[in-house]
Structures are given as structure tokens and as C-alpha cells.
Amino acid sequence: MRLFARGPVVPDEVLRRAGLPSGEKVLAACPTRDASWLLGTRTAFVAVPAEGEPTRIPWERVESADWSREDERLRVNEVGDFGHLRPVHIFTVDEPATLLPFVRERVTATVVLQRRVTVRGRQGLTVIGRRTPDGGEITWAYQLDPGLDPDDPEVRRLAEAGLRAAAEELGLS
Hints:
The protein has two domains: 22-109, Pleckstrin-homology domain (PH domain)/Phosphotyrosine-binding domain (PTB) (PH-domain like, Roll); 110-169, no CATH class. By secondary structure, it is of the alpha+beta class. The chain contains three helices and ten strands. The strands form three sheets. It has a four-stranded antiparallel β-sheet with strand order 1-2-3-4, sandwiched between helices.
């Protein structure tokens, strides 16, 4: 038993295999049913499988996370590249405990600005500016409503116009 413990208790072998940079601490964690571990640090979500290499996703690259009580699955969606499917990671966990609210808090903390752009009728897209937890440069992403074609020239034109307007709003021209 650790006295005055800070953060979750994660097996030493998992921490070693996670390959965290020096000084990076686990702030939230939970095991999965297949003996993998899911870790949340100040800068990233890290999935450490029972075998194989860990997957590290910086918070500014995590779009969302949800847990389904019915099938006990934690779903982590990455920010995708324009016109490409977003990577999705699914883990079976009995209870995400403090990890799920921690992931949501970290993702929200990276969002600097969101701007809605109408394309036609009720369909549109959202321009999202995000920044790393250490205050790095803003990265931009688009979230298109279902049914919009990212290769449509009008969608591309409006997405770029929305990005310019968002950047101007932040004083980044």
C-alpha cells in the first residue's frame, strides 16, 4: 500500500512499457478486460496493450470519448484528416472510473475556438482550433455533418473561408 499516493495505482511493468517521457505522470487510468491499460497523462491518452507497442494520442488529436454501459466499451475517436475517416479505438472495460471524465476534461481544455459554417440548409461543418496542453501552436480541424462530401469544391471553399474567419477572430491572419 502506498502512503500519500498521487494518481492511480498502475503496475510498474505497465508504466515501463508505456514509455512515458521523463517526468510525465499518470493522472487517470483503468485496466481493460484483455489485460491492457488505458492511461491519461497531462499531455496524452496512452493505450498500453498486454502485448505489443503502446498507442499514444496527444490530447489535441482526441476528438471525443464515450463509454457504453450496455456493452462496457470505451470508444476513443481521434481527430481525422480532412476527407479521411477518423481513427477509432475501442476498449472493453468494466468501469472507466476517473479515466472517462479526465479524458473529456483534457479534450475540452485543448479547444481554443469552434466556428459553425453553414453549407446548405441545415447541413454544415465546424471549424475547430485546438492547442496542445503546453500552449503550442493552434492546429485546425473540420468536422463535417453526415452527407457532406469533403471533395465537393463548395464544401472545400466554405471550409477554407471558415478557417480564415476563425483565424482572424484569434488575431492569426
